[in-house]
Amino acid sequence: MHTPNHQRTGSRLPNPQQLVPELGAVGAALFAATGNGAIPRTTIGLVQLRAGQLVASTYLAILHAGNLRAAGESEERIAAVATWRDAPYFNDAERVALALVDAVLQAAPRGERVPDELYALATEHYDDKALATLAMVIGQVNFFVPLALLGQPLPGRPPAEQWTPVPD
């Protein structure tokens, strides 16, 4: 039986960047690789939000929704990411990016997760560098998924308050 989580005052895991300081360099490298200019930042944010939704991480969903909000995205577009297939708020390239993150992160009932038809459609909107970058964007979010799900940082808090400090 599932019972609601009690209101925590800290994450379950102490701050992973304090525990593994190399994490900062990895995060910076991933940010640099995905921010190479091949994909609009807005599209990156939409993909990151969708990935957070698909892995059922409140922390990641709130983090990436907040990042989109801070970048000036409308509440309608942010809310509609969860139902992007039916929403009128996304252009064709954004739809392909959202379809790719859905395909990569959701099990296919049969056949390939990213079928040739979806890949062909993606090549109509993105060149090879952009497709590789989209793959890295999906991977970037997924690199942090285990920390988000295991550690349960506190969503919606400033970065310094999301994780419980490592005890001295």
Word description of this protein:
The chain starts with 15 loop residues before the first helix and ends in a 6-residue tail after the last helix. It has helices at residues 16-19, 23-34, 41-54, 58-70, 75-80, 92-105, 116-125, 128-151, 159-162. The mean pLDDT is 93. The chain has 168 residues and is mostly helical. The protein is globular. Helix 2 (23-34) runs antiparallel to helix 8 (128-151) and helix 3 (41-54) packs parallel to helix 6. The chain has nine helices and no strands. 28% of the residues are buried.
What topology emerges from the helices and strands here?
Layout: H1 16-19, H2 23-34, H3 41-54, H4 58-70, H5 75-80, H6 92-105, H7 116-125, H8 128-151, H9 159-162
Helix pairs in contact: 2-8, 3-4, 3-6, 3-8, 6-7
Number of continuous helical runs: 9
Q: Provide the succession of SSEs.
A: HHHHHHHHH
Count of strand segments: 0
Name the poorly predicted regions.
Answer: none
Helix content: 55-70%
**Shape category:** globular
Find the structural class using helix and strand composition: mainly alpha
Mean pLDDT: 93
Please indicate the percent range of residues in DSSP E strands (runs of 2 or more).
Answer: under 5%
Alpha carbon gyration radius = 17 Å
Largest sheet: none
State the end-to-end distance: 37 Å
